[in-house]
Specification:
Chain lengths: 235, 579
């Protein structure tokens, strides 16, 4: 198959390579084969190989994906693959981009737990049927791969927008009865570049590899602006 | 050669559970301490704590006790662990899990009464494994990295450490020489205290589970620095790694133990179950036994088309399997395999190194200012690591290291002038490929993988180990003749592949030498020519250090400081670790 890969930094061009099609072959395997056999200086990032670290996210035939978990047959239409770095992040080299902004915005959205109990205390009893816990649970398994951030058109035109992943995390904290700064996190999620900027286009939800819906989380934050923070007593 | 120089109080190498907890606790102990965190990949995204599927062992529930957890760890480790380290692990795991839940906000699974759910895990006398579904590590590292990102520190992401640099006057560590992966330039970070938390990782085997960035760099640096490594023959093989053929990075990645625990079957290439021929517990036998059984089937030629065996879950009901193991089932589905209803090819895969740097309870090493935690360390697990004790080890000792380093820096920390000749040597070492004709690094890596797998793998003999040792020395000669084109060094992964090979070859020799030293079989180490476990009362551990170009070896008696073989801290039979 023909593989077109972005070479360069902000400025650059596509180079074409040919790689044999194999039964068990992910996009990461294709990139690896090109680096090992054809283009030793090709830059890409990966770590875990199993979809838990999100380091290997790239744009594949126009869509952001985890390359370690994308089988070639699912995306290589008409025998051509086009692989680029993630959108909306500064480029370092070839397929590697700088994720610094993404994590700074995570912090800016209040993305950090603060507990009233300490390491000396027994864990609190948590009712997992409590609607707030159910809501938080549905959104907590984000691995911060920045696929949603790359898919989001609002991020593309508004550099200050905190983005879906950061606001999704804020929503889990607002729903976490153990979090002692729920009000503060909620306020931050409405700060500059916060959830007010979301246009509910849903690209985040459509592309999330772990099937979280950041759109729904952001909608939850917006609703809470009218109806108040989620109640913790289950009513 | 131009070197950028930088100074800090504490330099943390690695951002798995050990490195991140060290940074967090150092700041909590002394908010004024200046911290620099270096990671080979992105902060919090490289390393293996994140990859933990099973969970975290901790004696929290009524009826369980630290004593039970400790006895399970010692018996599981075949009396080889350093007992005070294992005891400390079990005690501090309680505090650390409570910290993860209460202070960091981890979402762990719950019982219906709201308490933490603790699941059964192999080799333990009590259901004590705290977890988040079948992807516990993500939750732990995500919550931990949020806390760390909020601290004030200098981040050196995508910085690869290549040499630990001693002080000119020999008084301790001066700092660490690194390559900035993004620019390809060199950087020397001088620090009052350094944490080695790079996480070992047995990626020199044909089939291996760790994160692809791991290549034993920390152990190789520690060896060259002169530290003693113990228990290096103890490489744990996980029985069920995904097998996808030679050209995919999916091969070797773990399919979790719980699949067998839940009633999954292993079938050989003839489609027949075989585990009953090896052990009465069948597929539910411990990791080492199942790995050896699969390896025996493979050696006898009863394999699948790609050379492994099958795991079959479908008889339990594909829907139940998908519900109980969503992470595994989805990962397989993404990659084209039907785990819930079909047959998936699997193979034993090198998973974890129980051995490593000798260290103390406070994470100090033999060199003042140099600390170590996590998989780079030896002595906690002995001959076998219980599933669920790995993440406990990295997070417990990482936190302790942070506290110790912060106190050390405040009390007696000084910036030591480096031995510049070691910096020069470190650079010369990394520069070697650039002077040479291009060679076939890929073939060399394949050969290393095959030789370690065949000769120093799941079953070993004196002959195979000698063959392995010989092959390794040839590979080392080959590597120094294998060159690279010197062009753009920024993010030059092929250069890093070369450096990975250098570290892996160095540590492969240590594993092989330790395996030759241990003439008995216990835990992860199996000698076909010495199949019995030696006398437990006179248990010794292997200890290796580098002197000049030679590996010096010793067998050191284990001190039974808490409990002796044949004794137990548990009175009632119910509390005895499973056999």
């Amino acid at each position: 198959m023909e593989v077109r890969i972005w070479r360069g930094k902000a400025e650059g061009a596509f180079s074409s390579y040919h790689v044999p099609v194999r039964d068990n072959q992910t996009i990461l395997d294709v990139v690896t084969e090109i680096q090992r056999e054809q283009e030793p200086a090709l830059a890409y990032r990966f770590a875990c190989r199993v979809g838990v670290c999100g380091s290997c996210a790239m744009t594949v035939n126009g869509k952001p994906r985890w390359t370690c978990r994308t089988h070639v047959t699912r995306v290589a239409h008409e025998g051509v693959l086009t692989i680029e770095p993630l959108r909306n992040l500064p480029r370092i080299k070839d397929l590697v981009c700088d994720m610094g902004d993404f994590f700074q915005k995570w912090q800016k959205a209040g993305g950090k737990h603060s507990g009233s109990l300490t390491r000396a205390d027994k864990p609190a009893l948590v009712d997992i049927t409590n609607p707030a816990r159910v809501t938080a649970n549905a959104a907590i398994e984000c691995i911060n791969c920045a696929i949603c951030y790359s898919a989001c058109d609002v991020v593309a035109w508004d550099k200050d927008y905190l983005g879906p992943a950061a606001l999704n995390r804020a929503w889990t904290l607002v729903n976490d009865e153990r979090h002692s700064e729920r009000e503060e996190t909620f306020d931050k999620s409405f700060g500059e570049g916060g959830c007010g900027s979301c246009h509910s286009q849903g690209n985040c939800t459509r592309h999330c590899p772990v099937e979280i819906s950041p759109s729904e989380s952001i909608a939850g934050l917006k609703r809470a602006a009218f109806s108040g923070l989620p109640k913790m007593d289950g009513n | 050669m131009q070197i950028e120089r930088h100074e800090t109080d504490i330099l943390v190498l690695g951002t798995g559970g050990a490195g991140l907890f060290a940074a967090l606790h150092a700041k909590q102990t002394n908010p004024d301490v200046k911290i620099t965190i270096a990671a080979k990949g992105l902060l919090g995204k490289s390393g293996c704590t994140r990859m933990v599927q099973g969970g975290y062992n901790v004696a929290l529930a009524d009826g369980d006790s630290v004593e039970r957890h400790f006895m399970d760890t010692i018996v599981g480790g075949k009396w080889l662990p350093r007992q005070d380290l294992a005891w400390n692990l079990c005690v501090k795991a309680v505090e650390r899990v409570q910290e993860l839940e209460n202070e960091l906000g981890c979402f762990f699974d719950r019982n219906t009464d709201g308490s933490l759910h603790q699941k059964a895990f192999a080799g333990q006398s009590f259901d004590r494994t705290v977890h988040k579904g079948d992807l516990t590590g993500i939750e732990i590292i995500n919550r931990l990295m949020e806390q760390v990102w909020a601290l004030e520190f200098d981040a050196l992401e995508e910085h690869r450490a290549i040499e630990l640099i001693p002080a000119k006057d020999g008084s301790g560590i001066s700092g660490v020489l690194l390559v900035d992966v993004r620019t390809g330039g060199y950087r020397f970070v001088k620090a009052k205290a350094v944490l080695l938390g790079t996480g070992a990782g047995p990626t020199m085997y044909l089939y291996h589970t760790p994160s692809g960035d791991k290549s034993c760099d920390g152990l190789a640096m520690a060896l060259r620095y002169g530290l003693k490594l113990r228990d290096m023959e103890m490489v744990q093989f996980h029985p069920t790694g995904l097998l996808g053929g030679p050209n995919t990075r999916m091969t070797g990645t773990v399919l979790e133990e719980g699949l067998r625990g839940a009633g999954g079957h292993l079938l050989n290439g003839d489609g027949e179950r075989f585990m009953q021929n090896y052990h009465p517990n069948g597929e539910r036998a411990t990791r080492d036994i199942v790995s050896r059984a699969i390896y025996s089937e493979m050696r006898d030629g009863r394999t699948t088309s790609m050379g492994g065996v099958y795991i079959k879950m479908g008889h339990l009901g594909p829907e139940m399997v998908a519900k109980k193991f969503p992470g595994m089932v989805k990962r397989c589905a993404d990659c084209g395999f039907d785990l819930a209803g079909g047959l998936v090819e699997v193979v034993p895969t090198a998973h974890y190194m129980m051995g490593g740097v000798e260290f103390e309870m406070d994470c100090s090493t033999a060199s003042p200012g140099l600390y170590a935690a996590g998989e780079d360390c030896g002595g906690v697990h002995g001959a076998n690591r219980l599933g669920g004790n790995g993440v406990a080890n990295s997070t417990v000792y990482g936190g302790i290291a942070g506290e110790t380093m912060a106190r050390f820096v405040a009390k007696e920390g000084v910036l030591r002038d480096p031995d510049e000749s070691i910096i020069d040597q470190g650079i010369a070492r990394a520069e070697r490929p650039f002077g040479q004709k291009s060679g076939n690094l890929n073939a060399l890596r394949e050969n290393l993988w095959q030789d370690m797998w065949n000769e120093v793998g799941i079953m070993r003999t004196a002959d195979s180990l000698a063959k392995g040792q010989q092959a390794l020395s040839q590979h080392r000669q080959e590597l120094v003749k294998t060159g690279l084109a010197d062009g753009d060094r920024a993010f030059n992964l092929t250069w890093h592949d070369w450096l990975n090979m250098d570290s892996l070859l160095e540590i492969s020799s240590v594993i092989t030498t330790a395996s030759q030293l241990r003439e008995d079989s216990r835990g992860a180490h199996f000698r076909e020519d010495f199949p019995d476990t030696g006398d437990l009362d006179t248990t010794k551990y292997t200890q290796i250090h580098l002197k000049g170009d030679t590996l010096e070896t010793d067998m050191v008696p284990v001190e039974f400081t808490i409990v002796k073989p044949g004794e137990s801290l548990i009175d009632d039979e119910a509390g005895a670790p499973p056999k």
